[in-house]
Structures are given as C-alpha cells and as structure tokens.
Amino acid sequence: MSVHPLDLVGGAAAAGAASMWLPQAARAVRVRRRDPGALAGISLATYAVAVLFNALLLVYGLAEHAVPVVVAGAVNLLCAGVIVAVVLPARTTGRAGAR
Length: 99
Known about the structure:
This protein is 76% helix and 0% strand. It is mostly helical. It has one domain: Monooxygenase. It is elongated and about 55 Å long. The termini are far apart.
C-alpha cells in the first residue's frame, strides 16, 4: 500500500489543526480555580462557534471516511468544548468578566 503525497499533506494539516487548540484548553483548565479572572480574555462566542463548526467538520469527515479530517475535528471539538465548559460557569457566577 503506497501513501499518496497529498495524504501526507492532509495528515500534517490535521496534526497542526488538532494541536492549535490544546494550549488554550490546557491553560483554561489550569487557571479556572486559581485565577478565574484570567478567563475573562477568552471569547466565549468564538469557542461556541468553534464547537459548532468542528462538530460539522467531524460529521463531514466521518461521512467521507477522511481520517485526518475526523482526527482534527474530534480533537478541536473536544478542546473547544472543554474551553466552553470551563469559561461558561465562571461567567455565570461572575468570577470572570464577560466578553
């Protein structure tokens, strides 16, 4: 079985896409109790939209059997979901400023 060069590009792009949200998710989880005010700089609307569009990307990847798209969509959906889950309670309790 040979690997098409374009599949390598897709794999690299998926790895980059999957890794770009990890630092923000990790930071949000780390600071949520220690410094809830640090969450004020995170745009809840941005990450809510990211949840929606990464869910759509995941569905598309599954329908097309595109493994790189599935991986990127799943990891991004998980990271964006974690960020929303961490920031939303802080906003509703007033511990982090609304943006």
